[in-house]
Amino acid sequence: MAADIVLKGKVHKYGSNVNTDEIIPARYLNTTDHEILAKHCMEDIDKDFVKNVVKGDIIVAENNFGCGSSREHAPISIKAAGVSAVIANSFARIFFRNSINIGLPILEAPDAVKAVENGDIIEVNLSKGIVTNITKKETYSSHPFPEFMQKIIQSGGLFGYISGKEL
Which of 5, 13, 43, 135 is deepest in the core (most CB within 10 A)? Predict the structure, then answer.
């Protein structure tokens, strides 16, 4: 087993049913340039997101995050903006799969979603399924990432995993 995957960052919290058009507006879907997608991530739901996010930060949302179209642009824009993980009560299934495929860790952790607040600093141990709220000194549990999914994340996504490249 590889070393634990531990991520740490500031929380950017959202509600339920954040759809892929809110994550990356359709007007930017004519590009696959990750830098351009990152510049417009979340702009229709949070115009200051790209000004406030720093590498390693974590999005926390309520229910059905990533609903809507099946475009990969949405998780790509989140990852390219510097977000290290997304935690929610639930995800749209295609968004879940697209996120893993591009190497963006996502985790269903209802206790964490309920307790954390915008701006809290949290640490996520994907290998053990533990979310620690450093700000509030609380710990919440979830299901750990299966080993093969950890390897996909460590490889930067499915293509890296298949080609045997670990980051």
Answer: 5
